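Researcher: Before we compare anything, I want clean individual predictions. No alignment, no superposition, just each chain on its own. First chain goes here; please echo the sequence and then give the structure tokens.
Model: Echoing the first chain and its structure:
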Amino acid sequence: MWRCAETPRLRYRRIALERDGIALRPFSTGDLPRLLAIVQAPDIVRFSHLPSAWRTEEGALAYIRSLPRLASGGQKVDLAIEALRTGLLVGRVALRNISWRRRGAGVATWVAPEARGHGIGTKALRLISDWAFSELGLLRLEADPDRDNFASRRMLGRRLFRRENGRSGRGGGPDSCHVCAYPRTLHVTSSPRRILTLA
């Protein structure tokens, strides 16, 4: 296991995790048409809280190009979910607001509407959790799905995320949900096939 005492420099373009028929890999400019189509889905617009710029070609391209810098600075790791059988981009999973001092991070995911119903989001959460705990040395992941996002809340429950009483996400507003936490003490790792990504 690798342990961190300070912010590591993650080599975004070398991240390659795969298991259970999916791969988590860096976004590339070649993903742009497919990405733009997916993020127009009404429930992704409603629940994902993505910047509106993501839904424009210029904004999405700028964001994709910023991801190596964000990963290198230890701030965020935002990965494409690819179906290995078809090679298609089917979703996104991210570690965000990473705190290396507290050894924790937020986690977020969404799946293209036509790819749902096959456990892709759950598999992606399992894979990125394994990597975060076993390779990055994190101790805790958190998610804060909207109250009305019942599908995401069910998925998080299957992945051992547990609601924490008294804590609300996104400022505790009317659309927020109680924070769901996943500490490493509940975790059993199944190592992904991977390329280690530390500089």
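Researcher: Okay. Second chain, same rules.
Model: Second chain and its structure:
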Amino acid sequence: MTGQWGVLGWRIPRFSGSVLGNLEPIAWATSAFSGPLSGFLSVFARLFALVVLLFLAVVFLRVLLELKIEQRRRRRLLAAESISALTPSEFEAYVGLLFRKAGYRVRRTGGSGDCGVDLVVHRGGRASVVQCKRYEDNVGPSTVRELIGTMTNVGVDHGFLVTTSRFTAGAEREAKKAPYSIGLVDGRRLVRWARRYGLLGDLRTSQEDDVLG
């Protein structure tokens, strides 16, 4: 390597042919690896795009399947002639459908960890909890007390207790003296409510007026 003095007194290096010759293997190695590397990156990008497309396709198919299942269940609920023949899960969905038809926004919470709440419904800025009891035996005061405890835990002051059977006199007294507003909907009220919206559900219970107004 040789050099000459520049304008500012700096020595400007000049590389001899031997030095440049020493750099040629580096340039060759760089070009040798750049080809396979770019090919690998191209294949990786294609595989990644394929995985993303497959993931989106699976998500789309799952959503489509869930919608079809929900539509099938909704048709079955609308066509149900015997409310008491519904499974507990179907009964919750049936009650939720009635609340929607009454102008409520409905969120189902039934399942493990639901704190005793089957539905949370909203209308007019007010939230209410709903317990659904597909019973054959009459509903007693202990079930009302359970709902009161649930309302305390959740922090709401209005709730509904909906059943396919009847409420005992003790249950009605418990609801009246509760520190919260509780609407009791027995089987007969439930049938009247369903028929108001054109549903075919039927069963035999007592009591006439409709607390849902």
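Researcher: What stands out in the second chain?
Model: The CA atoms of residues 106 and 121 lie 5 Å apart. Additionally, The helical segments are 17-79, 88-101, 141-154, 169-176, 187-196.
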